User: Fold O-methyltransferase from Stephania yunnanensis.
Amino acid sequence: MAGHDDDENKQALDGDDESLLEAQSHLWNLTFGFINSMSLKCAIQLGIPDVIHKHGQPITLSQLITSLNLPISKTDWLRRLLRLLVHSGLLAKTIINNNSSNYDNDDDYYLYHLTPTSSILVKEKPNNVSPFVLTMLDSALVSPWHVLSDAFKCNGVEPAFNVAHATGLWETSEELNKDFNEAMASDAKFLMDIVVSNWGDDVFGGLKSIVDVGGGSGAAAFIIAKRFPQIKCTVLDLPRVVASMSKSEMVEFVQGDMFEFIPPAHAVLLKV
Ligand SMILES: C[S@@+](CC[C@H](N)C(=O)[O-])C[C@H]1O[C@@H](n2cnc3c(N)ncnc32)[C@H](O)[C@@H]1O
Assistant:
């Protein structure tokens, strides 16, 4: 209350009530955890990392609204989204005008920066993993989580994806199959570039052949084949995945079921 010291104001919380409030706050964090994922998805779809990257320097809210071609009426929305993104570590913000007294108006008060996390979501960068994030957060892949308890109750081994879609992940629509392959390729490229440049000689140096089992569109195999042309690289994947691949001199694609046959090679690569 006005005029009272903080200490005078403070009423000790009953120990039980304090734990109850902590429990509620923990529960709220768990309940609304999806907001982090969905605001990440929204940021990629709007192109926020791309626009900040293209801008070449940290950006204000008003510059961001303009560069994203969003209606000016959405300024408040964007301000709130940016707060979430800063909170989750996807963006960072710094104060540009220390003398400003207008704390409520972020428009010219803060500069928004990319963080190491959002830097790998810039579409024009070779290590861009946006396709992976967008596909993993696609409603087709999120909806199985909504029916996880139903999947538990089914008397069988049917995955939650099948319960949600009445078909398996590997038999699903062409569109999701294509997106999924692109998603995994972006992840494989990101990771294998680092693996090959740091530990490539140790891991792959002495090999004459390698088969990437469930290797999708061959992103990992192409990176290995480029760095180690002496290694015969083979990718085994399901017929529908291999059918969409064009023939290559660097990597041989073999269609089949890994549970029935794996092409012989000195080493097997299994990456999920
Ligand atoms: C999670 S993805 C991993 C793709 C790739 N290894 C990567 O990490 O980027 C799994 C892959 O296994 C393939 N796959 C699933 N079942 C398979 C099977 N029975 N035999 C061969 N490949 C299979 C899928 O088509 C898909 O490309």
